[in-house]
Structures are given as structure tokens and as C-alpha cells.
């Protein structure tokens, strides 16, 4: 307060340099409520508000008194209310006045609260801060606030619902279901049957209401121990009760292996005690196929277990004799695993060729007597024989292959024809002649006479001479 007075005194000294406010009435228009407002301190239903004005002052210290502050709005009422404040010159400040209460019905939520303020300005002497000159009224300003509840807490209505309660004390809105938490297990008891009787307490996270429900718990035994008669016992970890019950058995079958027998046992899911009820004999090996080892042995594996066995290969021998071009050998093959190898090689025999046979096209072919499928073909080697022409037959050249006997003639020469010699008398009324080309060729025929008669004379008789005009033979008669 002293600081405010000091400030106002300093300001008053400065104002002494300016005209007195008594003579400054023409400047009243410079004083005005620039802004008015309401600051809610609660929801607006029967609670307090802080009105304020924003004032501009540039001449002299003044005292502002709220001449009237009245409330308008459905369901609102307010008591008489005044407030004042001193403001130095040259300042533009917000002046907050003392709070006042306004009552409103619960049904007014959402309505508007209007506070209209009219301020009276009283100029002050800067030295004494006493009224100096007439006062005047400032322009009215109206501040508006929308009334709304402000939820402060939730209160339980019944076992199923709760309602929101405003800071003004009224319940607002409709009842809503409780929002229960996960609950807390109550172990205080007493619980004669242990876990099945325990309850869980649930708390509403908004209003704090509680409810109790059976926890629906089963006994929790951490370790069961077998005792006798297919039963086991154990103590509940949660409630401490000692329990005894029949074992919960299920069959466990252990299959037999090749060499070991199997069995069926009843195994308890809780105490893990097992009782064998049935034995099965070993299954024996189920051998798979033989596979070669590459060293003259083979092996086979059991298809049930990892057992294996190894034995020497059982080879079967097959002799392949040598051929004309391929060597012979002995093959050894195992009929179980398929492993095989060869040994005892023999040299190829080479070809044993048969006779050449003509192909009729100037070639001849021969086959191997050992392997008839092996053949070779070559051109014929011809030798030429000339047959000269005779009187009646033509001449030619014969080409003959000495290997296969194939031959063919060519170069035909016409026959020479007969070269007949002179006829010679046979003195028997015939004559003959021979061919000059071939003395073996001869022909004969009767003489062909020409008669030459000689008439008789006086002393001699007449006669006829018959002369062959071909051979010259003659006779007379």
C-alpha cells in the first residue's frame, strides 16, 4: 500500500505541471471502460465471479467506483455489490474488483450470465489524493459468461451406477454404470472350504464404490505327492488346505525297438507317478536295401532304428569271351547291392574272313566267320580275257574277278563270216570245200555238171563229157 501511495505521489507531482482536472471536463471522453469481463472461479451455479474493467487514464489520478453491477439471465440473481480502485494517470491497467456471488438454478446450465458494469470516475488531487472536482460516469460495459457445470467428483447412486457431481454441489447428467477395476482378492476369510469360498473386492475407479463377488478360484497346489491306491496329496498354496485326490492318469505308450521291448504306462498329470500296465516284445530289425561300400562289402540299415550290418558281397561271375575286335573279360556282380567289377581280360581274336560274295555292282563283300555281323566290302579286281570273233560268232572281252567269280563281257566284235576255199572233187560225184578262217568248217555237195556231147565220126563213136563247173571233175559216157 505504501508503494502505491508513493507511486501516486510521484505521479501527482508530475500532474502539477498540467491543468487542474476541474478545468479539464472537456477531456472526459478520454476516460472510458475499454474492456469489461468476468473471471469464473467455479461453474457458475451459486459460486463466485471476479469482474474487472480495463481502464485508460492519461491525465490525473482517479478513483473508479463501480456504480452498478447487475446480472441478467434466466434463473440468476445477485446481491447489491460495489467496488472501487484508485488509478494513477498515464496508465492503462486492468482493475480487478472483489468477488461476488451469483445464484443460479441447475436448469440454467448452458445459459449465459450477463454482468453489466457502469463506473463513476472521481478525479483526485495528486498531492492529497482527495476528490478534486466533479465526478462523471463512464460508458457501460457488459461481460458475458456461459454457465456450465464443472465436474468435481463422481458419487455412487446405487450398486450399479454413479453420477457426476459439480463443484457447486449438484448432480449433473444421467447416471452411468460403475467402472470397476480388476479387483483385489480378499484373503481375510474365514473360508471353510478354502479357495472356492474366497471373494474378490472390486472398486469403481471414478466414485470409489465397491462390490464383492466370489472369486471362482480353484485350489492351487504347487506340488502333488503320490501316496498309495492311485492317489496323491498336496497342500493348496493359496489357502493352505491339505487335499487328497485320485491320480489323473493318461496312457503313455513307449514303442518297442528292434532289440528292446516296449510298454504302456499310466502317467499322472499332477504327481508324475507312472505305473507300467502292459509290455510288448522287441519288434526285431526291419532291414532296408543293401548298399555297396566299394570295398567288396555291402551294408543295410534298419528302418526302425539306426542299427546297421555289413557283409561281403555275393558276386555272380559272367564270362564274356573275346570277339573279333573286343577283348574278353569276366564280370563279377553282386545280386544284392548291385556292386560290380571286371577282371581276367583276354585279347580280341581278330576277324576270320569267309569267301567274297559278288554284290552285282562291281563290288564284293565278305563276312567274319566268328561274328557274321562284321563284314567288309571292296571293289572287284577284274582280269580281262579276249575271245576273238569266228566265222559264225562275234568276239568279245570277258572281265572276271578272281576273288568272287563275278564276270561280265563287253566290247562285242562282229562274226568274221566263212572264207570258203575252192571246191575239190571227191571223185564220187561230189565235191567239198573248207573255210579258210576255220578249217573245221567244211561243206560238200553233188557236182553240178555241164554236158559237152561229141558226136560220132566215121571211125569213132560219139560220146558225152559231163564236167562239174564248180570242182572241174568230169567223166564221159
Task: Give an overview in words.
The chain has 477 residues and is mainly beta. Strands 3, 5, 9, 10 and 11 form a 5-stranded antiparallel beta sheet that branches.
Brief write-up:
The protein has 477 residues and is mainly β. It is 3% helix and 46% strand. The radius of gyration is 79 Å and the shape is elongated.
Query: Percent range for helical residues?
Result: under 10%
Poorly predicted runs of 5 or more residues: 1-35, 74-80, 103-108
What is the strand tally? Answer: 41
Decide which structural class fits the backbone. mainly beta
Report the end-to-end length measured between terminal Cα atoms.
Answer: 224 Å
In percent, how much strand structure appears in the residues?
A: over 45%
Question: Describe the biggest sheet?
Answer: 5 strands, antiparallel
Specify Rg, calculated over alpha carbons.
79 Å
Number of helices: 1
Q: Estimate the mean pLDDT confidence.
A: 77
| Overall body shape | elongated
Question: What descriptors fit this protein?
Answer:
477 residues; mainly beta; five-stranded antiparallel β-sheet; four-stranded antiparallel β-sheet; 1 helix; 41 strands; elongated; disordered N terminus
Topology:
Blueprint: H1 2-15, E1 32-40, E2 48-56, E3 62-72, E4 76-77, E5 84-87, E6 92-96, E7 100-101, E8 103-104, E9 112-123, E10 136-137, E11 141-146, E12 151-156, E13 161-166, E14 171-177, E15 184-186, E16 199-203, E17 210-214, E18 225-226, E19 231-235, E20 242-246, E21 249-254, E22 262-268, E23 274-280, E24 291-292, E25 297-301, E26 308-312, E27 315-320, E28 328-334, E29 340-346, E30 357-358, E31 363-367, E32 375-379, E33 382-387, E34 395-401, E35 407-413, E36 424-425, E37 430-434, E38 442-446, E39 449-454, E40 463-468, E41 474-476
Antiparallel strand pairs: 1-2, 2-6, 2-7, 3-5, 3-9, 4-8, 9-10, 9-11, 12-13, 13-14, 15-16, 16-17, 18-19, 19-20, 21-22, 22-23, 24-25, 25-26, 27-28, 28-29, 30-31, 31-32, 33-34, 34-35, 36-37, 37-38, 39-40, 40-41
